[in-house]
Amino acid sequence: MEEDINKQRIREWYQEYSDAIYRFIFLMVGDHEQAKDLTHDTFLKAYYHLNHFKGKTSDKNWLYRIARNVTIDFMRKRKPIHYLADSFKAFPSNDNSPEKMMQLGEAEEQLYQALRKLKRTYREVIILRKIKELSIRETAEVLGWKESKVKTTLFRGLHALKAQLKKEGYDHETV
Predict the structure, then answer these.
(1) Are 151 and 73 in contact (CB under 8 A)?
(2) Helices (H), the chain
């Protein structure tokens, strides 16, 4: 009976949050197929660890935290050298498919390309705060940081993003 309740809960969460979780993961890895796989892995892991969910954070934040950990684990296992180098640069996306380019406007595409070149911590906090629009408290919960670290890292990350955009010749003040 409890297993049926858990399955239903995961189905409901999947309906409500899977698109947001997928987009978060995609922004981290830059690959559509891999993001789909990692999204699936996120909800599987949530199902198997549902008994650990105590409701201290929102279900959304709990899922984002799982998604973040699943994604980091993937990057460590698949690309250990890239993961180590991630502190200095992010991996550029190899997914420049025509359909992706058509979906994103030129400015948005430049923003995402520049975002992928930032170090992981900057990328994560910018995605969660500015793209996913989580509060400072929610972002701190997802990342396992103090709120002051979220604020500081966001400030530095946005500064680094502006510098990266300027370096790439995009000198617009929307960021």
Answers:
(1) no
(2) 2-29, 32-48, 59-78, 80-85, 98-103, 106-116, 120-126, 136-143, 147-167
Neighbours of 154 (CB within 10 A): 18
For the stretch 20-44, pLDDT in tens is 999 999 988 888 999 999 999 999 9
Fold of 2-167: Butyryl-CoA Dehydrogenase, subunit A; domain 3 (1.20.140)
Per-residue pLDDT of 33-84, as tens digits, reads 999 999 999 999 999 999 888 888 899 999 999 999 999 888 877 654 444 3
pTM of the model: 0.66
* Euclidean distance between CA atoms 88 and 148, whole angstroms: 23
Domain ranges of the chain: 2-167
Q: State how far the Cα of 137 lies from the Cα of 93, in Å rounded to an integer.
A: 30
Closest CA to 30 of 78, 84, 81, 62: 78
